[in-house]
Amino acid sequence: MAVIIFGLLSTIVLYLLVNYSSLVAGLVLLGIPLGTMLVSPNIATGFLAHEHVRLAGGTVPINNYHILLFTWSTIIGIILYTEFLTWYLSKKKRSN
Fold it and tell me: What keywords were assigned to this record (predicted)?
């Protein structure tokens, strides 16, 4: 279930990034999880705290919020890269 939710969030954000703007994509990327925390904090906290696996002999838990942070950092990197690339390609060369 968590894979579907994070996949849907990623798909929505990448769609907005390609078809609208990186600002809208960034706001939705941060707004959906934060809005969910404000609307129903008990359900959201329970979902984010759900443990999937323990690594390193049971000492390191991997929860949904770890996956959310991984998703956030990846998509924020893509958004920043597209912004930088757009800025770089829109610069005009100065003729001497």
Answer: Membrane, Transmembrane, Transmembrane helix
pLDDT at 96 over 60: no
Burial pattern 40-73, b for ≥16 Cβ within 10 A else e, equals eeeebeebbeeeeeeeeeeeeeebbbebbeebbe
Strand partners, 60: 55
Local confidence band at 95 (pLDDT 50, 70, 90 cut-offs): low
Query: Which spans in 1-96 are helix H?
Result: 2-19, 22-39, 41-48, 64-90
pLDDT per residue as tens digits for the range 2-37: 789 888 999 999 999 999 999 999 999 999 989 999
* Longest distance between any two alpha carbons in the chain, whole Å: 64
Domain ranges of the chain: 2-90
